[in-house]
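During the reporting period the student researcher (J.K.) took over the structure-prediction task from the postdoctoral fellow and processed the backlog of single-chain submissions. One of the processed entries is reproduced below for the supervisory committee.
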Amino acid sequence: MEKKWERALNGQAIRILHSINDGAYGGESLLIWDEQRKTISYYYFTTDGFMTTGTLEAKDGKFITHEDVKGDANGVTEVRSTSEILPDGKFRFKAEYLKNGEWTPGHEATYEEAPGSKVVFK
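J.K. obtained the following structure tokens:
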């Protein structure tokens, strides 16, 4: 997986781009401070035709997220995840999916920096 984080909208947002398997799947997220709700809100758009809206909270050294899914994501209607930056700089991520009214284990990965890698969209 290729992933890129960058400053966006004159520093008012963070853009995260990622792709898997040379662009077979990819997505883009925009994270912003939501002044009215006093939280970090984000929007995630995918090449699979679904999107999510969610919130991110920093708690006990971890990032806790909750997302509502819009569009066809194989029956998944919500996602919640926990991620953290490890002492060696790697980024660990673990998600759960709400599908048919039940929370089930989802994607889990540990990412590390790969200088020179490129995010690819087909």
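The committee noted the following: The CA atoms of residues 7 and 84 lie 20 Å apart.
J.K. will present the remaining backlog at the next meeting.
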